[in-house]
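Hi R.,

As promised on Friday, here is the backbone we talked about, encoded as structure tokens. Could you run it through your design pipeline when you get a chance and send me back a sequence?
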């Protein structure tokens, strides 16, 4: 082809075409479209090489492709690169070229057709960035998110799904590392979902309709509830798992609570009707003029017993209500729990004897000193004994022991009764809950006794636990109460109580009447006192007064007692100051928080003066 024919062909081409000299890549001829693409005139282009037009970052790679075509056996080449226009703009192009050789095989001309692919590249880049943002968002999402692609069989049917993407939340929910999820088959990981999730995902892919469903599944032995939302993405499916286990558990708890209340109301009706029926019949008998006197006396005794049962039932209900609303007050004093145990045994003896049980009592000769409410602690032990008697077959055995173990007084009630199912143990102290509802109805009981036990023990800063090897294997209840030292007797009115040295005591309490009464009591005992009613003034008094002991209320305004204790410890240090939390809060969590804040002891109001003086002297922990 002559040069004239070549120029004519370039003018008629309608696309960007250029020819070049193979060894140097110098431009020999161009079409109008190529000029428009680069922004140069034909004359300007004929003074340049293809390398001059190529973006600096693409030159080495592009030149290598071109040289392989010129010097190698291949006649054609393809290169994707960027051109830099005359105005500085950048255009992405794909060059499809061919090398022409003479009869000796020497490369004499290179011809390239250039296609502008800038728009496609920009779209690809926008898509890439969008995917990056999407993946970053999913990586940070608290909801589990996965992308699945179909795995089809030879007939083209979806046989399974492969994980294409999974965020960290999905790995946590499925209990599989994310790196082990990608590429894995859905049904290998969740075989139980072959009949539930798998057909739903197939339907999403085939119909394009999204789905939203709540399901439960087990991941490595851990059962979870999720809201599963799936939409079609490309030829696959994107799935979001929102963990709703907590919500489902709350819903179930509400249902269980309603069930227990219904059972309780049914049992309450039963428990009320039985004694009322007995009283009704006994009253009719006592009113009959022809009834012999012994029979009349028997009827009166029946009414007395049944009225007593009704009274105890009402008392239990009122106790639960008062404790739940925080309306009950303990009358605490130093006492020997051994005496309380004997009183409880005497109270429970009629029921134990009526059931022909054998009771083994082990209290020991040593005092069991606690600080508590005699009536309430007796109620705790009586409830445990009657519970053991009710839920043990006639002629069974009950063991009651009370011992000091380290800093605790421990009471254990064990029986050979019906036992407690394993799944029931965590709920045995819940209100209206019974391990054996049928037996409860038959033997009397509202399912509130153990709730009372737990809450009364906790009000004494103690704990209670239940244990059982299962149904038919008996049960054991263990009560732990903090032990105290028996208070020493005072040796005279003058000077500090118990003959101890006078202490410098800072009283911190926002109840002014209580604070002033306490200060007067301490001063009467020979101690030197200072008084503060809030946190900041307490810290200032600690600096100026330099106390040896601080009696610190927890429920202070603005800055609570825990924060005051922490700051005092930070300024004074450990061991240089005894900080005694002196508060109306007596739960186990309150005691723990006091210790963590740096308090040496946690005293619950009201407290016997002798016990308080012993703590101030440093004899109590």
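Update: got your reply. Pasting your designed sequence below so it's all in one thread:
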């Amino acid at each position: 082809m002559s040069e004239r024919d070549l120029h004519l062909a370039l003018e008629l081409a309608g696309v960007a075409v250029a020819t070049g000299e193979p060894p140097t890549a110098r431009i020999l001829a161009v079409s109008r479209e190529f000029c428009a693409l680069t922004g140069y005139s034909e004359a300007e282009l004929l003074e340049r090489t293809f390398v001059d037009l190529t973006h600096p970052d693409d030159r080495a790679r592009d030149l290598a492709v071109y040289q392989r075509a010129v010097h190698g056996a291949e006649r054609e080449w393809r290169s994707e690169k960027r051109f830099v226009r005359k105005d500085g703009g950048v255009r992405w192009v794909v060059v499809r070229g061919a090398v022409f050789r003479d009869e000796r095989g020497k490369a004499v001309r290179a011809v390239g057709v250039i296609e502008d692919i800038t728009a496609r590249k920009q779209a690809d880049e926008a898509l890439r960035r969008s995917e990056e943002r999407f993946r970053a968002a999913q990586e940070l999402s608290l909801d589990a998110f996965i992308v699945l692609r179909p795995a089809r069989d030879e007939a083209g049917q979806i046989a399974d799904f492969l994980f294409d993407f999974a965020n960290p939340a999905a790995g946590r929910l499925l209990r599989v590392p994310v790196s082990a999820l990608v590429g894995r088959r859905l049904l290998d990981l969740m075989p139980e979902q072959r009949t539930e999730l798998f057909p739903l995902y197939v339907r999403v892919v085939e119909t394009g309709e999204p789905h939203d469903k709540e399901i439960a599944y087990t991941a490595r032995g851990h059962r979870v509830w999720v809201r599963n939302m799936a939409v079609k993405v490309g030829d696959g499916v994107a799935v979001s798992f929102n963990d709703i286990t907590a919500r489902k558990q709350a819903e179930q708890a509400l249902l269980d609570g309603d069930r227990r209340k219904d059972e309780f109301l049914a049992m309450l009706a039963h428990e009320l009707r039985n004694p009322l029926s007995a009283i009704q019949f006994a009253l009719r008998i006592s009113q009959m003029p022809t009834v012999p006197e012994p029979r009349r006396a028997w009827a009166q005794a029946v009414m007395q017993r049944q009225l007593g049962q009704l009274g105890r039932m009402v008392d239990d209900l009122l106790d639960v209500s008062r404790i739940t609303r925080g309306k009950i007050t303990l009358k605490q004093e130093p006492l020997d729990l051994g005496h309380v145990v004997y009183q409880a045994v005497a109270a429970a003896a009629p029921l134990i004897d009526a059931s022909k049980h054998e009771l083994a009592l082990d209290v020991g000769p040593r005092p069991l000193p606690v600080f508590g409410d005699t009536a309430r602690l007796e109620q705790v032990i009586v409830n445990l004994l009657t519970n053991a008697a009710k839920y043990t077959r006639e002629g069974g055995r009950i063991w009651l022991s009370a011992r000091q173990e380290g800093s605790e007084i421990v009471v254990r009630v064990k029986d050979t009764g019906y036992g407690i199912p394993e799944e029931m143990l965590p709920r045995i102290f819940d209100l209206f809950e019974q391990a054996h509802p049928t037996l409860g109805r038959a033997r009397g009981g509202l399912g509130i006794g153990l709730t009372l036990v737990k809450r009364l023990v906790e009000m004494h800063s103690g704990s209670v636990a239940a244990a059982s090897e299962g149904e038919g294997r008996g049960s054991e209840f263990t009560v732990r109460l903090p032990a105290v030292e028996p208070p020493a007797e005072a040796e005279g009115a003058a000077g500090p109580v118990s003959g101890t040295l006078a202490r410098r005591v800072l009283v911190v309490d926002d109840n002014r009447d209580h604070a002033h009464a306490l200060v007067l009591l301490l001063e009467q005992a020979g101690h030197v006192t200072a008084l503060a009613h809030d946190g900041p003034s307490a810290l200032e008094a600690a600096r100026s007064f330099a106390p040896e002991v601080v009696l610190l209320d927890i429920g202070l305004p603005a800055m609570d007692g825990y924060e005051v204790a922490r700051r005092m410890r930070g300024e004074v240090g450990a061991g240089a100051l005894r900080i005694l939390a002196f508060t109306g809060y007596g739960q186990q969590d309150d005691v723990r928080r006091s210790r963590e804040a740096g308090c040496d002891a946690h005293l619950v109001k009201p407290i016997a003066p002798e016990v308080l003086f012993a703590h101030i002297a440093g004899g109590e922990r």
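One thing I noticed while checking it: The chain has a mean pLDDT of 82.

Thanks again,
M.
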